[in-house]
Amino acid sequence: MKKSILFLLILWGAGAPAFSQTLFPGLESDFSRVMLLLGQEILPTIQQNDLSGSGIGQATLGNSHFFIGLTVGSVVSDGLLKFRNETDWQTLDLSGLINTIVPASGPARSLYDASANAFPYPTLKVNAGVALPWGFELLGSGMYLPQAFTSPIISGLASNLNGLSVSAANYVFRLRHPLILEQGNFPAVSLGVGYSYSQVSISYQLSNFQQSIAGQTVAINGALNSSTQVNSFGTDLTISKNWLIFTPFLTTSLWYEAANYNSSANLTATVVSTSSSSSLSPSASTSLGTIAPIFTGGFDINLYVMRLLLSGSYNLGTKFWGADLSTRLQF
Q1: CATH number of the domain encompassing residue 156
Q2: Residue pair 149/135 in contact by the 8 Å Cβ criterion
């Protein structure tokens, strides 16, 4: 009897490494695929978000010399984690992983449920513009959201998200010149060129995610990291016309986007019953180079030095739309 028990223990111990060697590579491959699919969803949205929030609709500053303002808004994509219902994973329990990260109820769960068909990418920017010699105008907008700013917001959505950290930055510069000055019934028209840079870093500390693999409970811990960089350059054509206190406008933008996404993780998968573990190093990268027209329209409300801007945008390539609300002081 003792020999039989000893034989079973030896057999079990010999089987643990084989378990790791056959199933853990599949787990690593599944994590890599999740990272890749997520990057492919994010990249097409970032450029439109980067270019929004210029803070001004009118084609020229007119008799003004400079402005400074603030923009809030959002670009809405066709969803996030759209692959959530796929079932052809080798070993990863994707549904269980998502439920570990996203709480069962509350704002974060509501946002996740709604994100199957639409997901908002928020915009918060400071913007400014100044008149230059020879009729040129320099416009700038940007944001910098460090982890210290985003962490309290994320924690407020749900305590489960304490392991999530996000930092982001975006800077846009435009140089434009009027082609036609507004006169009588004729609108103002301007043409500009610009450059945009943005960077987003996301990290998540996965803690004791457990799932069943081949009848064994496996605990997965570690850090997942991703980084996105986007460089864009292009041209804007704006037409506007003052009417009482309103200035309706329409801008057609044609910008080229060069985007890169890289993601990696350092994970440890442990078979709970035997404490045997294996290190996983999934990774993924993807890039995007595309050009598509973006149409932005709306109107300025001119209240002496205070100006309000309501605008909406549409990307003809991605079919995504956005909306912004800006306020500025213009002198």
Answers
A1: 2.40.128
A2: no
Per the structure, how many domains does the chain have? 1
Q: What is the pLDDT of residues 154-208, one digit of tens each?
A: 777 666 677 888 999 999 999 999 999 999 889 999 999 999 999 999 999 999 8
Q: Which of 303, 177, 284, 187 is nearest to 236 (CA)?
A: 177
Q: Is this model's pTM higher than 0.70 or not?
A: yes
- Residues with Cβ within 8 Å of 329's Cβ and at least 6 positions away in sequence, in order, are 67, 68, 69, 305, 306, 307
> Tens of pLDDT along 232-252?
999 999 999 999 999 999 999
Burial bucket for residue 296 (CB in 10 Å: 0-12, 13-18, 19+) = buried
Beta strands in the chain (DSSP E): 66-77, 119-131, 137-145, 164-180, 188-213, 216-240, 246-271, 277-280, 283-303, 306-315, 321-330
- The SS3 assignment for 112 reads helix
Rounded Cα distance, 142 and 124, in Å: 8
Question: By residue range, what is the domain housing residue 296?
Answer: 2-330
User: Token digits for 25?
Assistant: 């590579």
Name residues whose C-beta falls within 8 Å of residue 50's C-beta, 6 or more positions apart in sequence.
170, 172, 196, 198, 230, 232
